[in-house]
Amino acid sequence: MVSERLMGEASLRQDFEALSLSRRLIRNVSQKLKRKTHEGEGDEDDSMRGVSIRCLTLYGRGGGCKVGADTSDEFGDPGGRRRSSSSEEGKGYHAICGTEETSVDCFPYGVREKFWRRNNRKVLELEESPHSSRMHVFLPDDILEMCLARLPLTSLNNARLVCRKWRNLTTTARFMQIRREGFYQSPWLFVFGFVKDGYCSGEIHALDVSLSQWHRLDAEFLKGRFLFSVTSIRDDIYIVGGRSSLTNYGRVDRSSFKTHKGVLLFSPSTKSWHKVASMKHARSSPVLGICEISSDSFIIRNQQNRQERRFPRSRVGGVSDVYEDPHRLSVRRQLWNSVDENDYSLMPNIKPYRFVRQKSDHPSAKDGKRFVLIAVGGLGSWDEPLDSGEIYDSVSNKWMEIQRLAVDFGVVCSGAVCEGMFYVYSENDKLAGYDIERGYWVGIETRPFPPRVHEYYPKLISCNDRLFMLSVSWCEGDGQIGRRNKAVRKLWELNPMYLNWKEVSTHPDAPMDWNAAFVADRNLIFGVEMFKIFGQVLDFLTVCDVSDTEMKWSHISRNHMAHELDASSCMTKSMAVLHL
Question: Can you tell me the distance from the alpha carbon of 192 to that of 334, in angstroms, rounded to the nearest whole number?
Fold first, then answer.
């Protein structure tokens, strides 16, 4: 019995040893097959992806690479180790038999997977969306240009942010001309000169009249500047003159200030700023006008004659003729003082005028049209009223002085260009016109002048080649002559044949703003009024269509921009209108 029992235990032990040997053999075979399968498929995937990820060459003390080695026999617990996201489980591999085994990864947790995806991003995108190539539609530039030209200005500014190509395509002069000639533009009102907390903020409030939406623009170039005048040529706005404080920068300071003669050019369609030639004299609040001129106008002839009348300076031994004979300088001065520059009959040596087109990048020079900007009056550096004027040629980028106004004309308070004549109105109720083509002033006698309240200066407006005037007068009420119930703002039109004024319309609002701004565009007259009442600044925007027989005024905006402004904004504001 004992021997049989011992023999049974020996056979059982042999069976267990054979079983454990077979288990180790199966486990080793499974690991080898798994390793071969993983390497084969990994090489195939790497060759397809074009990226090869290999183990780092790490060596232990005993030699040989320890990365990827099976350490289950050494540590005994394969499940206690950290699993890598790039192991067989992450790639979809499974063990053939036995428990699942893992290997030590040479990368930190998740790095190998991220590295693999990053280098194969394009391949994965193509696999995930096999039909994505059909979505790439390319339009010709001319069709794309026509589509973008029909967008409103707000949508066009958003489209410029899509790519560099769209931005470059929509900022060319040809694109602007397409929008202008295709009537795809709508009127925009730009209001300048706002004051917040005593400082000139430099903000510009823009109103899209067609959509009745307000937009706010930041203008760093206008911070600290006030009492400047604005006007528009095509798609650009000119900011002329102004003042800035010398002691308190940015504040509206009338005690210590500097008067500017610089001119800025603002393009709302491209949101760009440029500096143009400065005026001859520093001015604040000058009266501005815009006029289209021909090639034989006075300003072009005068520029040509000034260039031809220059005396050449000959140098002998490095010394000028003037220094050799000082008497020549005095004789030359006497010559120019005695000859009137407008009287060309006294100058027989002057050659006949020949117009030569000057090269310029300005849009007005590319389509054959030439515009000039005229600035008259304003206040000088010592706060004195000016009676001089200047003309700016947008093509040659030069300013030229013009003939002064009469001494007894008075201080210019408003002006407008109508049919080639720049009309100005003075505080003394006098009207004069400057012939831009010929270059001289003409006094205009009109009787009677529209009645007005002395504190409110009239505003001249030119619309559809018709000259209008907005003046504030007392309204007689209840049929009682001499009884002044209220003040009203009336619109008057000048008859060019009989030189008399005719009342055509009455503004619906009470004239609370003595410095109301009005600007005309085609057949519309826009007006903005700002005033402070009950501790709050209010604003009203109105419009009048002069093509209508009734010429009624209507409100387009109320209290949308002045609730955060100071009362001094009523005095410093200015307005321009563009079609964008």
Answer: 46
